[in-house]
Amino acid sequence: MFLLVSLAHMIKKPQPSTSSDRRGFMRGMLTMIAGGFALLGPLWGGLALLLDPLRRNRNESSGAFIMVARLASLPANGIPMKFDILSNRKDAWNHYSNVPVGSIYLRRTENEHLAAFNIICPHAGCFVQIDSQKPQFNCPCHESQFHFDGTKANPKNPSPRGMDPLKVEIRNGDEIWVQYKSFKTGISERIPTS
Hints:
By secondary structure, this protein is of the alpha+beta class. The chain has two domains: about 20-55; about 65-180, Rieske [2Fe-2S] iron-sulphur domain (Rieske Iron-sulfur Protein). It has two helices and ten strands. The strands form three sheets. It has a four-stranded antiparallel sheet with strand order 2-3-4-8, with no helix packed on it. The longest helix has about 40 residues, at about 20-55.
């Protein structure tokens, strides 16, 4: 019996190998990483399909002529009047009919010349207003000033360009149609955004 006990002490029990545990861990990690990469393709495709309406043009009036007013509603004294642009608009998955998508100033002079300007200041995108004291437009945000013909009124004007003119047409004798566009702000070039 003594011999069995001493032999039992001599036989060493096998110790668990740490290298096999590391290998198993590495295999598990590599499997998870490979599975993650395999899921990226379908996940990316599904996300792109879901968010597709967000990347589309939302303003259906973009570059189209829109009837804004009739000649009789615009005095021939050269004082601009503000008009809202109504059009259909898509907001992601929703469709809105005949809603305001922007505003313009229309001006009619004594010689029947019509001029239209986007109401958005080219400097920082604020809404330009008509000055009640002087015949000019003022931007309340950074004190940009414009003549009624859209040119800058002050050489120290922070705006990089004059107001953005829009194309105007007379149709059916007395209908004023304007090609509404918005432009990038803060730059000297007129680059349409819609």
